[in-house]
């Protein structure tokens, strides 16, 4: 007997809820941050934990499985997504036992004290033309990692995911027109099918800064910075967008829908704005970085959805915790941090920072080898810490 539309809808909702109940959820609240460490002058991981706890940040992403970092977060309650680097993908794709060994060495020993909640398999693989050799191995690697977690009974604790850049899209303006690039579809759709089966979201690195920098003459800076502006109108959906961040997320939703995965949640795995840049990097300044990150934080605190998915609160990891002095590329690449290398704030958006112990009005202090730091408020008490 054929099922009525009502029962089909019921079973669809029931099955999605069942998958979510049986799989790890890697994000608490709506605000997270990327803890990159491509630098030789950063505070110790223990100091970073102190900083994050003072700022009430509950979610972080790291790009490897550094044991010192994972040990430092033991007992912190901060939820972590670790990275399986691109260079590991090929060996992981051909051998599930290799994935098992990697997890037993780098993930399982730190549980449950360190709250590892996700493994990011690769980073921006399907948009990298110079790494096309990895396109075919991304899905097998993700499957082997998941299967190894399953054998260890960890799939209810640790989620498997893979972040993408906007380079996987053929177009994104207006948002409803967005589709995946034709050459990525043979790899993207099977990957999405697998993530749909295991209940993982779609992770996208969304940077209004990069869009503005590429075309500052035609993109309104206020639109990119969440400031008052005319915005854009999507004639197909009849939706209005007053900021580019929401438009980029809804473009991802549109592409997923066209690919047959309209029920998949989108989470922003990276977004941010640099406080310095080269002359050619339009918009990179302390003023714009402060404006973007402050407005982004307020936007996420509202726990609201986007115009196209109003019932799904937007979640995002900000890039990045610290400025990273060894990152290659333009000056902007080394200046995305909310905090400077010494742990002091890069600009004030209401967070606390690490300051020398001689600073006035110390609140909390801790010691590192050879130096002492003190936690102080970033600035005026009128700016309250947002609780996510």
Automatic annotation (TrEMBL):
Catalysed reaction(s)? Hydrolysis of (1->3)-beta-D-glucosidic linkages in (1->3)-beta-D-glucans
Pfam families attached here? Glyco_hydro_17 (PF00332)
Q: Where is the signal peptide?
A: 1-21
Task: List where this protein forms a coiled coil.
Answer: none
Q: Which PROSITE patterns match?
A: GLYCOSYL_HYDROL_F17
Q: Which family does it belong to?
A: Belongs to the glycosyl hydrolase 17 family.
Q: What class of enzyme is it?
A: hydrolase
Q: Tell me, what is one Gene Ontology molecular-function annotation carried by this entry?
A: glucan endo-1,3-beta-D-glucosidase activity
- So what EC number does this one have? 3.2.1.39
* Keywords per UniProt: Glycosidase, Hydrolase, Signal
Q: Origin, by domain of life?
A: Eukaryota
Please report the name of this protein according to its UniProt entry: glucan endo-1,3-beta-D-glucosidase
BP GO terms, sorted: carbohydrate metabolic process
Record InterPro entries: GH, Glyco_hydro_17, Glyco_hydro_17_plant
| Species, as recorded | Carya illinoinensis
